[in-house]
Design a protein that fits this description.
InterPro entries: DUF7869 (IPR057191). The chain has 190 residues and is an alpha/beta fold. It has one domain. It has helices spanning 2-34, 99-113, 133-145, 165-179, 185-189, and strands at residues 57-64, 117-124, 151-156. The radius of gyration is 19 Å and the shape is extended.
Amino acid sequence: PEDKEELLVEYASHIRIAKLEHKYYNDNIKKAKENASHTINIHSPLASKERPAPNTVDAIAYFCYNWAQNVPVPYSPQQIGPLYFKNEEEFPVGVAKGANTTLNLIYDTLIECNRDKKNIKIICDNCEGQNKNNATIAFYCWLVLISMFDTIELNFMIPGHTKFICDKYFGLLKAYYKKSVINTVDNIAE
């Protein structure tokens, strides 16, 4: 009986922490939407004009990254920033998945989409499959050391509670794919 009580206490604590993390995640999404006025669409006509220097705007950029796999939707000119579909078959010969590839994709995105913010918040899915967490922490420390950002807040989601909002939509999209013939994005819209 004592073991059962201990397990219940641990479970209740885990759920409480997960709910706090979930609230924090949702609060950051809300702040990101409110802060969207500071975002530059790199594919808009404004993008060709000179941008502010790095680390000059006192605003926070919010990034969530989770790699969508096996969802072959083509690039859209209305898309804000690059979208990477990370699938090993698409890599050039000699390039594989792992920390280096992942962090190169993230660095490219930060350069393209976030040239002027002083602070960023990153939410990671805490996936340990490629053992990238230590490299990821070192990478973000390096970005602060080279003064690309003043602060970087790095959040790893709680194991067992690592679903991003976009995961819901990828799940719905995958279910739709299984039932449909899709050749273009217009097919999805239909």
